[in-house]
Amino acid sequence: MATRIAAKRKRIYTQVARAHAAAETEQRILLAATELFAETPIDAVRLEDVARLAGVSTKTVKRRFGTRDELARAFIEAAAKQNLEMRNAVQPGDVQGGVSMILEMYELVGDAVMRILAMEGRVQVITEMAEKGRELHQAWLERVFGPWCDPSPAKRAHQLALLLIATDVFTWKLLRRDRRLTLEQTRAVVEDLVATALPRRP
């Protein structure tokens, strides 16, 4: 009896250890992909490069994620999850917190996002995820800034359109990269745009 229990415990331990090892391997591959995708267009990244950076074989990458597009999907979904967590930390009506969060996020990933969006229409997974990203951003605008918007549907839609321009990654890129404004100057511009959209906010 004791022998059977010991054998069962050993099997459970082995299964748990393998699961942890598999999770760690997948995490290393995703981290390697993140580093490469942040610097190189997704359609130019090779699985061999990801494998080398992750310290695993190309066969392991293919076994865990399949094709490059499937790896890109996993990378984008992981980034989207982190994006959602940051957005959900902002409470409804917290306009200042919303502006701070979105600028912080763009400072971290804005350049990579711009490179990824440049491939929209060329890479199917990016086209799909870009559309989901726009839907997520619109829902976030309505949740965070909506409490200060006019109840009239037409006026509310107009305000949300202004807020979309104020908080879009392309606006961040225009101010921070094209115009070379500092972060504080960019914040001031975005806050002015938000104030224009929400004149009744106390």
Number of strands: 0
Level of helix content?
over 70%
- Low-pLDDT segments: 12-19
> How many domains make up the coordinates?
2
What do these coordinates show?
This protein is mainly α. The protein folds into 2 domains: 1-66, Arc Repressor Mutant, subunit A (Orthogonal Bundle); 68-202. Helix content is 79%, strand content 0%. The chain starts with a helix and ends in a 5-residue tail after the last helix. Mean pLDDT is 88; it is low at 12-19.
Observed structural traits:
202 residues, mainly alpha, Arc Repressor Mutant, subunit A, 2 domains, 9 helices, 79% helix, 0% strand
Nutshell version of this structure?
The protein folds into two domains: 66 residues, Arc Repressor Mutant, subunit A; 135 residues. Helix content is 79%, strand content 0%. 21% of the residues are buried.
Helices and strands in order:
Elements: H1 2-39, H2 47-54, H3 58-65, H4 68-88, H5 95-117, H6 124-144, H7 153-167, H8 169-178, H9 183-197
Helix pairs in contact: 1-2, 1-4, 2-3, 4-6, 5-6, 5-8, 5-9, 7-9
